[in-house]
Design goal:
4% strand, 5 helices, Four Helix Bundle (Hemerythrin (Met), subunit A), 72% helix, mainly alpha, binds heme C, two-stranded parallel ribbon
Amino acid sequence: MRLFRRLALTAVVLAGLASELAAAEADPRTAIALPADLRPAFLAHMRHHMDALDDIIARLAGADFKGAAGVARTELVPGSGAGFGRYLPLEFREMGLGMHRAAAEFATVAEAVPAQPAAADWQKSIAALQTLSAHCRGCHGAFRVE
Ligand code: HEC
């Protein structure tokens, strides 16, 4: 009887571990505990990033390289997330800085495009834009808020 109870207990413990592992597998991102009153502002800030990215692509679609650079410089500048910083782990903040640097680098590339862009100018600009969006993607794969 005692053995049976021990086996049953072991089964319960193993089932618990298995479901924890399954949960970790389902969402392996690091959870950031943001105070509930800051969460909406954090997500609104992120939606602003999405707007900026879309505005950049829209300017590029119109061959407006200077306009695209301007959006990157004014809307994706570092420090615009002030207020959340102290709740964010160092690795998160470094990824954020990487994104801002990529935005500045895109702006530099796009600003240098001449009035009559060649195929290589388009290619370089799109490559720099992709480096920027890779930073969005990288952080989204690594972190979530709760
Ligand atoms: C340093 C990390 C980081 C970077 C860089 C980053 N994000 Fe986010 N973003 C997050 C986290 C964390 C969330 C919340 C995800 C969750 O909890 O599931 C988020 C959420 C979002 C959301 C959802 C907002 C909502 O209302 O639910 C959008 C849209 C978004 N990000 C766009 C972007 C875009 C576009 C970029 C790049 C220009 C970007 N983000 C760069 C970390 C980042």
